[in-house]
Amino acid sequence: MRLAMKRIDMHIHSIMHYDEYEKESDILRPYPNTGTFATPEELKPVYARLGIEKGVLLPIVSMEGQHRMMSNEEIYRIVCAYPDMFYWYCNVDPRCHTNSNDTDLGYFIEHYKKLGAKGIGEVTSKLAFDDPKMRNLFYHAQKLDMPLLFHIGADKEPYGIFDELGLPLLERTLNDYPDLKFIGHSASFWSHISKDVKEETRSSYNKGPVVEGGRIPELMKKYPNLYADISANSGYYAITRDPDFGYAFLEKFQDRLFYGTDICAPREYVFFNMVNFLDDGYRENRLSKAAYEKINRFNAENILK
């Protein structure tokens, strides 16, 4: 059973178009061993299947992890062409312009905000949370009241804001910028839902029972400015690996969780099954109507105002 309401996808990437030569030549591959990003037309049937009304497009402006960037301008053009299908976040690399610790990043953020950007992300720069350039970005994001969606990476990963096991730098950041809404994402973020995460498992899609006392529930309980999207395999496995824990987690933090996909290519993904997990939870009374509606849509509507 699904409600009549449509979902909002808090985490999506797209490109306007590509031709067959570009597809066959692999020039648009964002990461090794993957296909090109999906176009809006390729996303339409997927969104219809998953019951999604609109998605939040996230540019990719940092060099780490891929050679295929997505500029703010490209994403803005897509939103202008498909206004009924997308919202958008802008993105700013903390090293841009003067590559200094006190660059006026607010100049760029405010420019895109005036063009309709609702937040900042997906931030993937491979700098530590406490790097002065990264903290400069947080300062300007907080000053301009722009939610920031981030990807955490471990040292061995090709991209993502760096933190240590146990996420001590994220905690310091949450404490230092209490008025900035941080939206967490990635395997190295979601692996910390369980207390037994280790250095060798922190970047993995872990399965099996969740051990109580994980850092993500702890940080979300302690810091009201920490939000999270349940997109990609990372979010899917974290929430579904232990269904009883997963539904309890969704219920407890229902006001700060967002449905998302993170579709990065026009193909099938395991995380498409997240809609079934949410729908089954609601149908079986393991997830309240309020939590179901907030996670699928209402939380996104509130933060996108």
* Domain tally: 1
- Spatial separation of the terminal alpha carbons: 29 Å
Indicate the low-confidence ranges by residue numbers: none
Quickly give the structural class: alpha/beta
Helical fraction equals 25-40%
Compute the CA-based radius of gyration: 18 Å
Q: What is the CATH H-level superfamily?
A: Metal-dependent hydrolases
Overview of the structural elements:
The chain has 305 residues and is of the alpha/beta class. The chain has helices at 20-25, 40-50, 72-81, 105-114, 132-143, 168-176, 187-190, 215-222, 232-240, 243-252, 274-283, 289-303, and strands at 7-12, 52-57, 86-88, 120-123, 148-150, 152-153, 161-162, 182-184, 226-229, 257-258. The chain has a five-stranded parallel beta sheet. A three-stranded parallel beta sheet has the order 1-2-3.
SSE map:
Layout: E1 7-12, H1 20-25, H2 40-50, E2 52-57, H3 72-81, E3 86-88, H4 105-114, E4 120-123, H5 132-143, E5 148-150, E6 152-153, E7 161-162, H6 168-176, E8 182-184, H7 187-190, H8 215-222, E9 226-229, H9 232-240, H10 243-252, E10 257-258, H11 274-283, H12 289-303
Parallel strand pairs: 1-2, 2-3, 4-5, 5-8, 6-7, 8-9, 9-10
